[in-house]
Amino acid sequence: MRDAPPTAADVIDQADEYVELAADLLPLDAWHRAHGARMVQFAGYEMPIQYDGIMAEHVWTRESAGLFDVSHMGQLVFSGEGAARALESVLPGDITGLGEGRMRYSLLLGSGGGILDDLMVTRRGDAFYVVVNGATKYDDIAYLLDALPDGVTMNLMDDQALIAVQGPKAVDALARIVPGVAALTFMTAAAFDWNGAVLWISRSGYTGEDGFEISVPADNVVALADALLGEPEVKPVGLGARDSLRLEAGLPLYGHDLDPDITPVMADLGFALSKRRREAGDFAGAARILAERDAGPVVKRVGLLIDGRQPVREDAAVVDEEDSTVGKVTSGGFAPTVGAPIAMAYVPAAMAAPGTRIRLVQRGKVHMATVTAMPFVPHRYVRAGGKS
């Protein structure tokens, strides 16, 4: 057990060796296999794609509570004088204005305004806890090392696991194990003691459901997963259902719906551009992003309801009346809660209005779709004041 987490520079120096061993480092690997998970390679790790089946796990999460392992994601802590301002140089959100235990969705931006990653930032005292995507975490670390001043320290918490329990009954199950968590509301977080271990718990997630994400010492995560699975509302859920759940919730997935060629305005993520930061125009790529915000994007991320029953998958072409490719599908699949295939796509701004009919081509076959508002399934977050 380390006395302190490694610095980001240490991780970069040892990245090749770390990535090679990564599959052995996920603390719940054996636990997943013991519970019958089908494992697949994902972001350099062996991860569970399903246990009882993607459809069943999806429905269970919407109706009860699913337990997810998201330990592949990067947990970073930024500290030191000026940490908030330093983060604001590459994030367009109001970081200095975050209150204790408050969270904010934000975007790591390149100098040209493209999205390098999407992430969550939480204030923890004088420090900031940031969760980044697993597939991009080493690139993120390298980029941030170059961007941050010497007085700001960035640590990778590789001795922490990260799990999530999501669904309308998640609060019932977790509150029996960790009393007090029910007092949290959407996008708030706090530390809790559990059997001598400190858990950092946020009321957040990426399914559109109420739920929690729990940062737990790796040495304690098996015991915590067992305790959660001992509650009648909870079943383990794999990456397959996590993807279909976030798609129904209209939530973009980095590397699919977001990439360095996409700006926040194109991605319809304008809410991540805080008012103070827009007015100051002092974040990476601000000139392009603010000009695009004023003039409107050339292309825009939209939701699609697909005619018929056959799903349309990523990379299917959006075509115009002359069969010229004018956009593409970035995520797609059958939506169990909707009862029909759905997709996200980037289309020309002139085709982005809800109700617009869209032609898609997948493997030579034409599919028809209708642009629709997202989310496809209403979010059920528990906000302050008891509103969902």
Molecular structure report:
The protein has 388 residues and is α+β, with helices and mostly antiparallel strands. The protein has 2 domains: 8-248, Probable tRNA modification gtpase trme, domain 1 (Gyrase A, domain 2, 2-Layer Sandwich), CATH 3.30.1360; 298-388, Aminomethyltransferase beta-barrel domains (Elongation Factor Tu (Ef-tu), domain 3), CATH 2.40.30.110. It has 11 helices and 19 strands. The radius of gyration is 21 Å and the shape is globular.
SSE blueprint:
Layout lengths: L7 H6 L1 H11 L3 H6 L3 E5 L2 E6 L3 H10 L1 E5 L4 E6 L3 H6 L14 E7 L5 E10 L2 E6 L4 H11 L5 E4 L3 E7 L3 H8 L11 E6 L2 E6 L8 E7 L3 H9 L4 E3 L2 H10 L26 H6 L5 H10 L3 E8 L10 E3 L5 E11 L4 E9 L8 E6 L2 E8 L16
Parallel strand pairs: 3-13
Antiparallel strand pairs: 1-2, 3-9, 4-7, 4-8, 5-6, 6-7, 9-12, 10-11, 11-12, 14-17, 14-19, 15-16, 15-18, 16-17, 18-19
Helix pairs in contact: 4-9
